[in-house]
Structure formats: structure tokens, C-alpha cells
Amino acid sequence: MSDNNQQQGQINIELDEKTADGIYSNLAIINHSASEFVLDFVTIMPGVPKAKVKSRIVLTPQHAKRFLKALGENIHRFEVNNGEIKDTDQPQIPLNFGPAGQA
Q1: Where is this region: Disordered (predicted)?
Q2: Is 101 exposed, middle or buried (CB count within 10 Å of its CB: 0-12, 13-18, 19+)?
Q3: Which of 2, 27, 37, 101 could form a disulfide with 42 if both were Cys (CB 3.0 to 4.6 A apart)?
Q4: Is 43 in contact with 24 (CB distance < 8 Å)?
Q5: Distance (Å, whole) CA 26 – CA 17
Q6: What is residue 55's three-state secondary structure?
Q7: How open is the CA angle 32-50-86, to the nearest 5 degrees?
Q8: Which DSSP state fits 64?
Q9: Going by C-beta distance under 8 Å and a sequence separation of 6 or more, which residues neighbour residue 13?
């Protein structure tokens, strides 16, 4: 394969320093319409009655399905290497901004 063909099959992705730090989230709120899925990532702290959305990701339905598959594959590989991820019961968190799914 020539260098030109290899370059056409690659995507150069940049990651700036602030984005590379990431954002911690312990709650994801998922909503959808006919044309998009909206994932809101929130950090809830014990004893603090208010929380803000730290990051919002908007996906097409097709991309949301590919994301679900990729996340499932990564969880499987993680559990093969590190053991089963235990799913602990979480207390219900009252959300006051409309109907939403929760993950």
C-alpha cells in the first residue's frame, strides 16, 4: 500500500490538555428524540443538594448504537482482565427536570 493510500485511511485526532484531563461523572442522564440521543454527565456529591451537568454529548441514533456496542466490548475486555464489575444498588436520586432515562 502506498503512503498516500495509508494516509487516506487514517484520521488525525488531536486531544488538547484540558480535554485530556477529563471530567468525573457519577451519573448519566440519557434522553432521546427521533433524531438524536443526548447524554448528560453529572457529578453528584454527598450532602450537596444541587448538581450541574458537567458535559453533554449529542449523538445520532446510529452513533449511539455503535457507542453502546463499543462500550459493551470494552467492559467485556475489562472484566476478562480485572474480574466482574459489581453493580451495587444505588439510592434513587430525585431528578427535577423532566422525564429521563438513567445509567
Answers
A1: 82-103
A2: exposed
A3: 27
A4: yes
A5: 22
A6: strand
A7: 65
A8: H
A9: none
Which class for 86: exposed (0-12), middle (13-18), buried (19 or more C-beta within 10 A)?
exposed
Within 8 A by CB and 6+ apart from 41, the residues are 23, 25, 27, 28, 53, 54, 55, 56, 57
Rounded Cα distance between 38 and 103, Å, is 13
Read off the pTM.
Answer: 0.73
What residues are paired with 27 via a beta bridge? 42
Number of other CB atoms surrounding residue 81 within 10 Å: 7
Query: pLDDT 10s digit of each residue in the chain, 103 long?
Result: 455 555 678 999 999 999 999 999 999 999 999 999 999 999 999 888 899 999 999 999 999 999 999 999 999 999 999 999 998 876 666 555 444 555 5
E strand or H helix that includes residue 32? strand 27-32
